[in-house]
């Protein structure tokens, strides 16, 4: 065995700010009585880059907190992935709330372009919407629209891992000389 086991040094560990979840779910009635139908976002997303859809804190246009990197419809709803800008005050606060689980809802800001009223269900069926923004919120209109993942690195855990790697490397080096 060669003597190329060098000590590992922890340079920097920080929060990635990456969040994922569903900003809208198809087929269930939200708190205001709307049901978003599968395909409602297709036209709106066809001519927009995810970063052009605002990521806001509590639907406040004066409080942008990050950037969306992926927005797509799947069989379940509007799946999103983005990065909260943790180096800003608003972003850092939003990310801390999300990590703690204090805020975990997602909510959409849109303009209805095509809808029908279902008198039997006493609801509005949203067939097509023009998506403007997706917000991290405390109470989403659609209770199924939630964050599923908040990614960060734990500095203490990373430091323990580095210590374990260095201890293992030292043990292997010591075994070579024995």
Characterization of this structure:
The protein is of the alpha+beta class and 178 residues long. The chain is 22% helix and 40% strand. The protein is built from three helices and eight strands. Strands 1, 2, 3, 4, 5, 6, 7 and 8 form an eight-stranded mixed β-sheet that branches.
Write the layout of secondary structure elements.
Blueprint: E1 18-25, E2 34-36, H1 42-46, E3 54-57, E4 60-73, E5 77-84, H2 89-100, E6 105-118, E7 123-137, E8 147-151, H3 155-177
Parallel strand pairs: 2-7, 3-7
Antiparallel strand pairs: 1-5, 1-8, 3-4, 4-5, 6-7
- Tell me the fraction of residues in β-strands, as a range: 35-45%
CA-based shape: elongated
- Sheet with most strands: 8 strands, mixed
* Succession of helices and strands: EEHEEEHEEEH
Q: What fraction, in percent, of the residue positions are helical?
A: 10-25%
Mean pLDDT: 86
Structural class: alpha+beta
* Count of distinct strands: 8
User: Could you list the spans in which at least 5 consecutive residues all have pLDDT below 50?
Assistant: 8-14
Contiguous helical run count: 3
Task: Give me the Rg, rounded.
Answer: 22 Å
Amino-to-carboxy terminus distance:
13 Å
Key phrases:
single chain, eight-stranded mixed sheet, elongated, 178 residues
